[in-house]
Amino acid sequence: METSDTTPPAATATEPHTSYLEEKAFKSRTLLVFGTVTDVMAADVTRRLIALDADSAEPIDMLVSSPGGHLESGDAIHDIVRFIAAPVNMVGTGWVGSAATHLYLSVPRERRYCTPNTRFLIHQPSGGAGGPASDIAIHAREIVKARERIARTIARETGKSLEAVLVDIERDRWLSAEEAVEYGLVSRIIERKTELQR
């Protein structure tokens, strides 16, 4: 008698490996935020944060390497990190830019770390609105509001004045790991997990 296997070979080959890595990451209370910030990523990250928070009050280590992306999706992650009870250690690695910098700033300064080769990017939001002039005017007002909100967050979390931050984000501002420490984005540059606060 002939049998048919309807499971795709790729799924059979990768699912056990993927679930094993997922389980290991969960047990180690480590969360990866890699790639462009989107609504799909925000839903996944916030779901995992809530699950880890429900599992234990122990610290969660969040590793971030992202060019940024959708600001409101970054807002969702930022707000849920602040909403949960478990403390989060934020570790920048690779690069942390734009909306990713915003979610990175969701934790107190003493819990913000980066690896030695990390670069940070702060800037104002950009828009690509088209359509009728009235719609373009609405988008422009919203971008100005978002710019001020981003600047207030950076000022609050770095200790810099709002006026100074508004000048700094007028154009792209790149910072090395050392410059990010000096600016107040990062508390410490680390090379090993054992250096994280517990």
Separation of termini?
59 Å
What Rg is obtained from the alpha carbons, in whole angstroms? 19 Å
Could you say which overall geometry the principal axes of the C-alpha atoms support?
Answer: globular
Largest sheet: 7 strands, mixed
Poorly predicted residue ranges: 1-14
**Please, how many helices?**
7
* N-to-C order of helices and strands: HEHEHEHEEHHEHE
SS elements, strand count: 7
Provide keyphrases for this structure.
7-stranded mixed beta sheet; 18% strand; disordered N terminus; alpha/beta; globular; 198 residues
Short account of what is shown:
With 198 residues, this protein is α/β, with parallel strands linked by helices. It has helices spanning 9-27, 39-55, 71-83, 99-104, 133-158, 162-168, 177-183, and strands at 30-34, 60-66, 88-97, 112-114, 119-122, 173-176, 188-189. The N and C termini lie far apart (59 Å).
Could you walk me through the main structural features you see in this protein, from its secondary elements to its overall organization?
The chain is of the alpha/beta class and about 200 residues long. Helix content is about 50%, strand content about 20%. It has helices at about 10-25, 40-55, 70-85, 100-105, 135-160, 160-170, 175-185; strands at about 30-35, 60-65, 90-95, 110-115, 120, 175, 190. Strands 1, 2, 3, 4, 5, 6 and 7 form a seven-stranded mixed beta sheet that branches. α2 (about 40-55) runs parallel beside α3 and α5 (about 135-160) crosses α6 (about 160-170). The longest helix is centred in the last third of the chain and has 26 residues, at about 135-160.
